[in-house]
Amino acid sequence: MNNINELYNRWLAQPDLDDAVKAELVSIAGDSDAVTDRFYRDLEFGTGGLRGVIGAGTNRMNLYTVRKATQGLADYLNASGLPKKVAIAHDSRHNGALFARETARVLAANGITACMYPRLEPTPALSWAVRYLGCGAGVCVTASHNPAKYNGYKVYGADGCQITLEAAEKILAAIEEIDCFDDVRLADFDAAAAAGRIVTIDEKCLDDFVQAVYDQRVGDGAGIDALKLVYTPLNGTGLECVKKLLKKLGVTHVTVVPEQEKPDGDFPTCPYPNPEIREAMQKGLELCDKVRPDLLLGTDPDCDRCGTAVPDGKGGYRLITGNEMGIILLDYICRTRLAQGTMPADPVAVTTIVSTDMAAPVAKKYGVELRRTLTGFKFIGEQIGKLEAEGRPERYIFGFEESYGYLSGGHVRDKDAVNATLLVCEAAAWYAQQGKTLLDAIEALYREFGYYRNALCSFAFEGESGMHTMQELMKKLRANAPEDIAGYKVESVVDYDTDGTGLPRANVLEYHLDGGHKLMVRPSGTEPKIKVYLSAVGDSEAAADAVNAALAKAAADMMKA
User: pLDDT tens-digit profile of 68-77?
Assistant: First the structure.
C-alpha cells in the first residue's frame, strides 16, 4: 500500500497536471480502495494495446498512460527497420480526439510522422490507412463495444493487423522503461503540423477504402436496389462509410435510427453499445415496427462489428447471431462464386476456435479448406498475410468470428463492418429474389447440416481481487478437470496454454463432450470477465438449446470462486 500511496502523491504533486486528472485525484483523497484501484498496477498493454476505464492513475486511460504507451511505440519503431510513419484514428468515445492528438504529439517529438484522420473514422479504415500510406504502425483510439466509461488504444503493425505477440512484447518492454512524467517526449502540436511531422490523411484515402470494400462484391447485385434498410451506427463512427458504400451499391431505401445517428460517447440509448446485445439494437427494432424494412443493420462504435435483424414471419424481427450470419455468408460466398466461376483454386476460409463448428461441414461441401485460429481477428488477418507471402492471396475467400466480425477480402486485416454491410445486403437481395429471407436461409442450412447452436456466458470479476479470482479459477480448472459437465461425459480436454495444439499458447480450456457438444473457458483479453462458450448440436433447435441451457447452469457453478 505504501508504494500505491507514493504513486498517488507523486501524481498529485505534478506541476501542470491535467485539470480533470487532478480533480479526480483530489476527490478520492483518503479513500484507500479508490486509490488502490487506480494505482495497484499499470494498465495492461497486450496484443490489443490498452483498454480500460477513463480516469486518473496508472490503471486508467488518461493523457499520461497514452503518452507513455506512445513513447514505448516510438522507441520500438525507432529501433526497428520499419517506416517511421504511423496512421492514427479515433472513434466517438470520450477523450478520443484528445488521446489521438497526444499520440501524434509524442510520435512527432520522436521523429516519426503522425498521419491523422481529420475526424472520427472506423477501425477498418485505420487498418486500411496503415498499408495504403506505407506506415510502420497504426493506432486506433477506441474501446470498441465496451461501455461509455472505457476507452482504448489499439496498435496495428505495418501489415494492417493488430500487432503480433512478439511485437507486443517488445513494445511492452520499451513501455516498462518509461516514466510517464519524466521520459516522454512531447512536441507542440501546431509547430509539428507546420513542420510536416503531423499530417492530415486526405479524403482520397477514405474514398479508396470504401471503393476497396465495394470491390469485394460477390454476386451481380440483382435486386439490391429494392432492399429497404434500417441502420444504426450506435452513436459511433459507421455512418459516413456505410452511407457511402450503400450509395455505391444503389441501396436508397435507408432509414437511420435518429437517436443513435450522431456520434456520442455517452451512448445514451444503450449503456453497452454492442450489436451482439439486444438492448443495443432495441431502438432499431422499435423503428422496424414502423418502417417494416427487409433488414436492420447495426454497427458498433468503431464499426468493426455488424449485427442484423430480419423479419421473423410473425410480424416481428429476429436478431441473427454472429455465428448464424457467419454461416449464411460463408455459404452465400461459396455457392455464388462457384456459380459465377470466380472461386479460386484451393480456397481458404478462416474462423476461430470459439466460433461455430458448423463452419466445418459447410466448408467441406464446397471444397474449401477451413482454418481455425485463436480468438481475435488479428489471427485471421495473419492467415491472409501468410497466403499473401505465398503469392496466393486470392485463396482467401472469407473469415468470421462469432462476435459479429466478418471480412471477405484482404483490403484490410481486421474485421470490417462496412464490408459486412456489403455482404449482408448482397445475401439478403439474393435470397429475396427467391422469395426468401436470411432467416429462411439459416433454417435451410440447419436442416441440411444439423442444428448447431451456440451461446455465451460472461462472468464479471471487477477490481484487483477479481483479477486474482480469475487466475485462481483457471488454475483450479487445470488442476481438476471435470469428468462430466451437465451430465455429459468429458471425452477430451484441450489446454491451449500448452504446446502441441498447432496454435500459439493461449489461456483457453476446451472440453469436448459426448454427443458432439463443447464448452470452452477463456478469460477476456479486454475486460475483467471469464467467457464460457457453449456449443451444442441436435436434430432440432429446441434440442440443441436445451443442451446449452444445461451447460450454462454448469458453467455458472464452475465460475464460483
Answer: 999 999 999 9
